[in-house]
Design brief:
Length: 397
């Protein structure tokens, strides 16, 4: 059966709970579900039910297309003025000897390593330290664009921007407009965690508030920038906190249309102040992806980071609403591995990544940051005589 037939079969199941049937009918008719119905999906929806609904939406939007991109990461520092309880990555100022703090030339050295690679994006995020201020990033963005004008700069989260703009005595709009003029192209979605203050105060009490996070994204959208959004799930939050989080994103997206992708981030409990909190199961991971796909009806894409959840789970997620598995996360990024992700030195060749997608019956497409097609791998046959770097996703040793 195809996705539409599976949904019809589900709706006609006489044993289906009345509330769940009503939600399934809404999905078939492309009607928005309510806050309470979103909570109900978590409380009553089993994995099969949620998968049928989420996959119907996914295939209605994207068919079998599954996206990845070629990017590399720069993490300017893991020293941070903030004390997030869930974070395994950062080191406080008093522990800075255990961390790293790069200068602009050090960051440019990483950019130059990829000069001969067909990457389309540099992704920049890390800790927050006073010396990496507005002019620090302005200088880097300018030098990066001068060196490689076509490279898309996806840089910094509202956590970093809030601190930087406050120090510079600039509004969110003014600060972003200045950095956009210096070369900034778009923003990643990190730092959102859980918006509701009941949870946020316990896990990230001293970083920017939910309102500040949302406003910075709204100002970026006003400037024509596209951004992503995340949610850290599977720790001390309740189901309704997740829906509250997604609802705030959905409302902002209704106003601006500037979000591209929603990325659920799984809480990992290695070497942080919340190590006593157990991690949720793979079943809950898949349920969460599915609910996100159903609830966020105005987001085009839902992404799963294969390096965080494992290659196998990433494959499974493609049947639960996910249409993007990122791609070239390589060992330039330590945020996931330091938190206990399955992939400790994440790297996949293009061939491996394409085959991972093909092996579950999906259609692999390399995209750029804005989801323009770079290479459609539907009919590509990998040839033995091609040089390794023709297919290899870049890895920094």
């Amino acid at each position: 059966m195809n996705a539409e037939q599976k949904l019809g079969f589900l709706i006609n199941n006489r044993n289906l709970d009345t509330d769940l049937k009503r939600i399934a009918e809404k999905v078939r008719e492309s009607e928005r579900i309510t806050f309470d119905e979103g909570v109900l999906l978590y409380e009553k929806g089993d994995l099969n039910y949620l998968g049928v609904l989420a996959n119907y939406i996914r295939e209605k939007r994207h068919g079998d297309k599954t996206y990845f991109n070629r990017n590399f990461h720069i993490e300017p520092t893991n020293v941070c003025v903030y004390d997030c309880k869930f974070c395994s990555y950062s080191r406080m100022i008093k522990q800075r000897e255990e961390g790293w703090e790069m200068d602009v030339e050090g960051m440019m050295d990483i950019v130059r390593r990829y000069d001969d690679e067909p990457v389309t994006e540099v992704h920049i995020t890390g800790g927050v330290v006073p010396k990496q201020n507005l002019e620090f990033y302005a200088e880097f963005f300018k030098k990066c664009k001068a060196h490689r004008p076509e490279l898309h700069i996806k840089g910094l989260t509202p956590v970093e921007y809030y601190y930087i703009f406050k120090k510079a005595k600039l509004s969110h709009y003014e600060g972003l407009r200045y950095l956009q003029a210096c070369g900034l192209d778009s923003m990643p979605g990190g730092g959102a965690e859980i918006f509701h203050s009941d949870v946020r105060e316990k896990i990230a009490h001293d970083k920017c508030t939910a309102e500040q996070w949302l406003d910075i994204h709204e100002q970026a959208h006003k400037l024509g920038m596209h951004t992503n959004a995340t949610m850290l799930y599977g720790h001390i939050e309740e189901f309704w906190h997740r829906i509250d989080h997604m609802d705030r994103l959905r409302q902002l997206q209704d106003r601006t249309g500037g979000f591209q992708t929603f990325i659920p981030l799984k809480f990992r409990n290695k070497d942080n102040q919340m190590s006593d909190v157990p991690e949720v199961s793979v079943v809950e991971d898949l349920r969460n992806y599915a609910v996100a796909r159903i609830y966020l009806d105005n987001f085009d894409h839902v992404k799963a980071y294969w390096a965080m959840i494992s290659r196998d789970t990433a494959q499974l997620s493609l049947a639960y609403g996910v249409d993007d598995i990122d791609g070239t996360l390589d060992d330039t990024t330590k945020i996931y591995s330091m938190a206990g992700a399955e992939e400790q030195n994440p790297a996949m060749s293009t061939k491996e990544l394409v085959e991972l997608i093909r092996n579950v019956g999906r259609h692999p497409i390399e995209r750029d940051t804005l989801y323009n097609v770079v290479t459609d791998y539907k009919d590509v046959v990998f040839e033995e005589d091609k040089p390794a770097k023709y297919y290899a996703l870049p890895v920094v040793n």
